Each structure stands twice: as C-alpha cells, then as structure tokens.
Amino acid sequence: MLDKQHGSLRASGRFRWALASLVLVLGVAEAAPAHGGWPEKTVTVVVPYAAGGNTDIMARLVTEWLSNRLGHRFIVENRVGAGATLGAAYVAKAEPDGYTFLFGAAPQLLVAPLVQKVNYDARKDFAPVAIFGTGPQVLGIGANVPAKNLREFVTYAKASPGKINYASGGQGTAGHLTGALLAARAGLDMVHIPYKGGLPAVTDLLAGQVQMYFGNASELLPHRTSDKIKLIAVSLPKRMSQLPDVEAAAEMFPGFNLAAWNGFIAPAGTPRPILELLAKETVAAAKDEKIAGRLIELGIEPGSLMLADFQRDIDESRPAYEEAVKAAGLKPPE
C-alpha cells in the first residue's frame, strides 16, 4: 500500500514537474519576440547627408522610436560625400544581416545613377523597406507675376519666352529637376538660375530677383501668408494636407511626380522577417501623433508605403526622373 502511495506521489510529482516545465516553455515562447530575436545589438542607420537637414532630422526621430520599441539602440551615422552617394555605396556593400541600413532619399536611387558614376547598382544592391516621410517640392512665384494658379502661370510664361528666371538650390538639385520637368511638360522657355542652396534662392524670390522657385516645402511653407510670393503647385501626385488649396502639378500634367521621399533602404539579401518588422515599425512611427505632428511642421507628409508598395513607387517615378534629368540637360555618366 505504501509503495503504491509512493508510486502515486512520484507520478504526481513527475506530472507537476512536467506541467511546470511546459508552462515555463510556453511562457518563454510567448515572451520571445516574433522577429526571432532581432535586433540583438546596436543597429547602424547611415544618413548620406550632413547633420541638421531634413533627412537627418527624420532619421533621428525614427531611430529614437525604434530604439524604444525594439530594445536595442539604433544610431545615426552621417556619411557625407560623393554627391550624397558615399553613404549609399557603404550600405550597398554592408553585410545584409539587419544591422546596417540606409536612411536615404530619392536622389541616391533615382537621380545620382543618371548623372554621375556611383559605386553601386541602384536596382540590384538594395531592398526598399519603408518610407518615413515625403517632402514635396512647392512651386512659389513672385508677387509681381500675374498669375494666381499653375494654369495662369503656364499661360503667362508661354507668352513671355526667355523672360522667366527660375531659381534652384544648385545644378542637379531637386528644385532644378522639378523646374526643368515643368518647363518640358508645359513647353516653356525659362532661364535656370542656380544658387548655392535653397536659402539664397528663397531670398531672391522674395525680393523679386527671380520669378519662380520650386523648393522644399520646409523652405516655402513659412511664407505661405506672405504678400511677396504665391504658392501655386506641389510636386506630389496629390495635394498636401498643409496646402489643401494648392493644386498638385499632376492635376495639370499627369504623371508629374518628383516627390522627395525619405526612408529605410536595406542591403539586398537582408532577411525578409527583419525587413517586415522594420517596415511595420517605421510606418507605426510615422503615424504616431507627436512624430506626425513634427513631420507636418517640417512640411513633410508622414510616410505609409512599405516593401512592395515602396518598390512600386520607385519604379513608377523613375520615368519622370529620367525625363527631368534629360530636360535639365544633365548628361549621364560615361
């Protein structure tokens, strides 16, 4: 009888031990992150522009979010040079293990390969992850230009060949390409005036020294109520939430899309589960109320495209960039 009781107790003890082990295993499995442990160490996010600019500001906003959400630090590393392609080339050759990403912009993938020699293949060496924000170009014209909207401006410019000076932040910049594309699509004869940056271009637009400037939204939005300039178009396929009364150039010229997106690009071959998690968290960050508010203050539309949709957006906007480069008279690398 005693042996039976001892056997029963031993069996009961084994059952309890097995049950406790099962609970422990299930508990560990439940606590284990769905992304297979990534990240397990610091993640480097390469920004190909200098600190303090819009791309750098956005990168620091999203990396802080990711550090808090995923439990390991995401650090920004500014790698500037080679026409903003040095950082992209570095990431293209990095180990595709999920610990090095590019936080880049359209120029690295869509413009630079058309106008200079780059040390990467923009179509093969990268895997687009997610757009965090899109900063469109906004078309500003001087108060002395007799036009209140894009259609009136085009009509006026056509009647004044060679008399419209349009500014840009420099040869080959987004403003130069956007202005050149508008001229090509509308059949306008305008004179390009390149400046050393957007600030002097805006200054001369306000002073009436130039008649038109396609500039970053962050440069022109502060002057939206000014009596010295008029904002008449944006380079997005649709209107900006900050300028609902200002038409998209695409409304008049279908396919006009030179939006300057910023987002994560991974080295080709990075494991899909890592890309999916990073994409999900990047879009979640862009939807966060405080972060979205900060982006909107900068004139940036919070991002929402990720993975296949991001890749599709790149592919669909490539013809417009190719057309803009040709219209601007920029020669492809030999």
Q: Can you walk through the features of this model?
A:
Strand 6, helix 6 and strand 7 (190-194) form a beta-alpha-beta unit. The termini are far apart. 43% of the residues lie in helices and 19% in strands. The radius of gyration is 26 Å and the shape is globular. The chain has a six-stranded mixed sheet, sandwiched between helices. It has a five-stranded mixed sheet with strand order 7-6-8-5-9. It has eleven helices and eleven strands. The chain folds into two domains: 43-135 and 259-327, D-Maltodextrin-Binding Protein, domain 2 (3-Layer(aba) Sandwich); 137-251, Periplasmic binding protein-like II (D-Maltodextrin-Binding Protein, domain 2, 3-Layer(aba) Sandwich), CATH 3.40.190.10. The protein is α/β, with parallel strands linked by helices and 334 residues long. The relative contact order is 0.17.
Which properties best describe this structure?
about 325 residues, alpha/beta, D-Maltodextrin-Binding Protein, domain 2, 2 domains
